[in-house]
Automatic annotation (TrEMBL):
Protein name, as recorded: b(0,+)-type amino acid transporter 1
Catalytic activity, as annotated: L-cysteine(out) + L-arginine(in) = L-cysteine(in) + L-arginine(out); L-lysine(out) + L-arginine(in) = L-lysine(in) + L-arginine(out); L-cystine(out) + L-arginine(in) = L-cystine(in) + L-arginine(out); L-phenylalanine(out) + L-arginine(in) = L-phenylalanine(in) + L-arginine(out)
Domain of life from the UniProt record: Eukaryota
Keyword terms: Cell membrane, Disulfide bond, Membrane, Phosphoprotein, Transmembrane, Transmembrane helix, Transport
Gene: LOC115406759
Pfam families, alphabetized: AA_permease_2
High-level lineage: Eukaryota, Metazoa, Chordata, Craniata, Vertebrata
Membrane disposition: Multi-pass membrane protein
Keyword Transport appears in the UniProt entry: yes
Amino acid sequence: HCVNTDEDKTSSPIRFFSFAVCSIQRSCLQHCLYKIVTMDKKEPEGLKIKREIGLIGGIALISGTMIGSGIFMSPQFVLSYVGSPGASLLIWTISGIVSMLAALSYTELGTIIPESGGDFIYILRIYGPFPAFFAAYTMVLVLEPFAAAALSIGIAEYAAAPFYMDCSPPTVVVKCAAAFSLFLVAIINALNVRLAIRIQVIFLVAKVLALTTIVVGGLVKLSQSTDMIVENLKVENSFTGTQFSLSTFGMAFSQGLWSYSGWCSLSYVTEELKRPEVNLPRAVVIAISLVTSLYLLVNVSYLTVMTPRELMSSTAVAVTWGNKVLGSWGWIMSLAAALSAFGSLNGMFFSGSRVCFVAAREGHMVTPDILSMAHVHRLTPSPALIFITTVSLIVLIPGDFKSIINYFSFTAWFFYGATLSGMIYLKIKKPELPRPYNVPIIIPVLALIAAVFVVLGPIIDSPQIEYLYVTLFILSGVIVYIPFIHYKMCPEFLNLLTMFLQLFLEVAPAEKQL
């Protein structure tokens, strides 16, 4: 009666809401709530998030997410693990190649399964709901928040560096600045999809200019080469002091891959990409090629300006480089690094919130429906953005950059490996599936081998109790899955909370974009 008649439209929304709660079931109530929010006299059409991302936006999303604080903070960690400049450059090169192989594999999956959600939706369609829940559970509560927290810490450290030239900035200053950056990015992504993509493009241009400045500065320094610089870059000396072990290479590899994280970000938003069968592979190849080339040149530039010992002892490599090359203008590098990390955080929120949104849409989140809803006017998944922001702030409180990266890489590449093995299964068992984009099977196989090494290498060579904690946390998802997902148990207060938040946030259920 409430859905099909218009007699109560002139009544107050509160009276209408009360009547609906008493007389209809929850699915009908959501329909009525949508009518209250939109105040539309006609039957509401299905709410869908629009396809707003073109080729330029796709390139900006991938490369803009990849180029973050990693290239400004991870070089000293990579070098300290492997012990030599040559081995460090080799790690950066292999990390770029592995990222390209994995991204090309995901591109084929994205054309076979043209849905948003990345690893979660691929695992769901290939393996089923049980393993997919673990992917959603870990991504939403570990991977995305930890990555966002690490990026926000990078922003804060570089933004504060010019004000604390002779010492490290206080922890409370770093944490407060990091929290502010999380809030700001969440607001931007909640306001408008086009605004978020435009900011991503603008910040990508700024990042490329900043990294180009470092490259050119290194070339100028190399042209004025001293004996020290020549010794650093000589092939016969570049591998002196290399530390050979699975643990050291595994940890260095994790640091390198962290700087390339974001290569799969476009697969999280496939439903918002225009002509995904065309733009997805083009964006992946262009973006990762650009980032890999810049990363290698930037690392060479660092080594032309600093000795390996100076680089390893630096807490902010880009700032140290700026002070040596730009002198009194060295603070520009701090600003560039902070802006770079901010753009990466924007891309992380844009793509990461879609994982939460799609997982809730598929019934894999404990909250009944609120996280699968989008704003009725702005068409952004604002409840998912609010949830990701909240968890990221919680993670931010005790976290530090180095440990966050190690655990992020361990858990992320576990699910990357699961997705890649699923793709290999589809290529062997279901070759008849339509594939607008196809890659040789050797590409996902090589990427899978790299994923296995990243996950198992450090554990076998140097086991730490923290890896057990992470594994137990992932497996603890069973406690949540059985009652709340499999049997769909839902406390009544969650339904009431969903109804309240739907009205308060002006959101409604969003349909899948086909």
